[in-house]
Amino acid sequence: MAQVLSLFPTPLMQCPQLIDATQAQSLRERFIREAALPNHRDSALAHSQIIDPADDPALAALARRLLPEVVEMGRLMFGETLPWAIKEMWANVLQTGAHQAVHNHANCFVSGVVYLSEVDASAQTRFIRSLGGRDFVFSNSHAGTVTGAFNADKWIGPTPAIGDAVLFPSSLLHEVPPNRGGLRVSIAFNAIPRRLDAWGYGLSFSS
Ligand SMILES: [Fe+2]
Fold first, then answer.
1. pLDDT tens digits for 57-106?
2. Ligand 1 mean position to 129 CA, how many Å?
3. Does domain 13-129+152-204 have CATH number 2.60.120.620?
4. CA dist., res. 86 & res. 169, Å (int)
């Protein structure tokens, strides 16, 4: 019997109810107040300052909750249970109509989002396989195409509930399409391992 394998898949970790509704509400109310930095591409999207969770008790508690999941993502990505640090966190508050442009996160390895509000179906985090480089792109996309794991360009997960989190490799492109719902509030974070070692060629990272 023929068998199809998924070679070299990308890990994306969903963590339902990473924090409870009370914790989410407390962080949501705080960061609606504190997110005062307008995004340079969309003024209806505001960010908080970038915060080292070691300097902030509420975010330190959130980081402690996230860290085991980050370590497990790191084990999947690098084949070893390494010491990891959540280097920074920041909040994103999208008004109705706001979007977040396609981006990834430089100089880190695991990133993620903790959802502090409901997320309208229009504004779910959308992951993108690639925008292409300098090569020609060949595609077969039309009304008769069936999209599956091997030909998809984009992926949207199930609608997150308040308190859910998602973790992904920092290199993975993602965006938030225009928000047709109410206020969308989330906390994003970046994490780094202390050290990577490829047969003696080591790199150390500091937070
Ligand atoms: Fe992001």
1. 999 999 999 999 999 999 999 999 999 999 999 999 999 999 999 999 99
2. 14
3. yes
4. 14
pTM (2 decimals)? 0.94
Q: Give the DSSP per-residue string, 137-198.
A: -----STTPPP-TTT-SEEE-SPPPTT-EEEEETTSEEEE----SS-EEEEEEEEEESEEEE
Cα of 187 to ligand 1 centre, how many Å? 10
Other beta carbons less than 10 A from residue 96's beta carbon: 15
Cα 118 to middle of ligand 1, angstroms: 18
- Ligand 1 geometric centre to CA of 79 (Å): 24
Domain boundaries, the chain: 13-129+152-204
CA–centroid distance, residue 8 to ligand 1 (Å) = 23
- What is the DSSP code (8-state) at residue 10? P
